[in-house]
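Example S7 (structure tokens).
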């Protein structure tokens, strides 16, 4: 049985064999085959045959690049598990500290606009009015928190995209495919297997880059949408007397964030923000207090 050597730092051949052997359907058929062979009239013939079939199965599965990649991913997830569980949820200060100049200025401008509209609403209706109070609702803070996290995600994706040139990735993939074709013509199975795995890895990298580019475009559109919604909502607090209407509008926009939050979860491996979509901090109240 010949299998490609595991990558450095990976689970290793022993882990691949163990996972392949302990696969529930393999155990069912293997143990069932052993039992059937043992009670058959010719167990001395069938038992070695069952063992040989099992070895062929294990060799074929362990040599499959997709199977090894799946086991590698499981090992990495298990290694990250305790660290991810102990990692603290991102705070307002930590996310703000990670923003670069343009993104930080954009958030500060939006938050400042909210505080400005809050003051105008207080001036129009008098201090203690319900319209001003609505500007500090958890729903509106959730929108600002989501906007801030999307800015951080967009920044991380832009760094990721800048670090890899898709033209180079496609050129490398084309070169690997040419070498693969030549190796097949020569009949060198070891090189064919190695290049097959390398091609799968190159294709995965290119697909990841394409997904990241699509996600970055989506985040840009979504940031513009949410920014416009927040500005419209805080302006409504000045011109509308009906606090219930304002509250329902804020809640409606917050509910529409489900798709966006799901996108952030899917991008957590790139952004580093993880699954921690906890209660948002009191962003507006903190900003108003700082200015006072």
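Recovered sequence:
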């Amino acid at each position: 049985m010949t299998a490609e050597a595991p990558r450095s730092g990976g689970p290793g051949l022993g882990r691949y064999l163990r996972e392949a052997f302990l696969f529930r359907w393999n155990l069912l058929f293997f143990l069932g085959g052993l039992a059937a062979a043992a009670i058959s009239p010719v167990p001395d013939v069938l038992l070695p045959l069952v063992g040989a079939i099992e070895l062929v199965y294990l060799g074929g599965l362990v040599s499959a690049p997709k199977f090894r990649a799946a086991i590698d991913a499981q090992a990495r997830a298990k290694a990250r598990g305790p660290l991810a569980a102990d990692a603290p949820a991102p705070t307002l200060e930590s996310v703000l500290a990670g923003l670069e100049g343009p993104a930080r200025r954009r958030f500060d401008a939006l938050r400042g606009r909210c505080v400005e509209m809050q003051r105008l609403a207080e001036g129009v209706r008098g201090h203690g009015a319900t319209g001003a109070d609505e500007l500090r609702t958890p729903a509106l803070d959730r929108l600002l928190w989501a906007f801030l996290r999307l800015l951080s995600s967009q920044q991380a994706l832009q760094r990721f995209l800048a670090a890899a040139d898709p033209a180079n990735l496609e050129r490398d993939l084309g070169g690997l495919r040419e070498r693969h074709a030549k190796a097949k013509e020569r009949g060198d199975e070891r090189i064919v297997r190695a290049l097959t795995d390398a091609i799968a890895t190159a294709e995965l990298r290119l697909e990841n880059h394409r997904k990241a580019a699509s996600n970055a475009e989506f985040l840009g559109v979504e940031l513009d949408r949410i920014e416009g919604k927040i500005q419209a909502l805080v302006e409504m607090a000045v011109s509308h007397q009906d606090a219930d209407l304002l509250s329902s509008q804020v809640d409606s926009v917050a509910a529409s964030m489900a798709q966006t939050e799901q996108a952030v979860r899917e991008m957590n491996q790139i952004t580093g923000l993880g699954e921690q979509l906890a209660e948002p901090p009191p962003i507006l109240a903190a900003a108003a207090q700082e200015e006072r």
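Notes on this example. The two ends are 74 Å apart (CA to CA).
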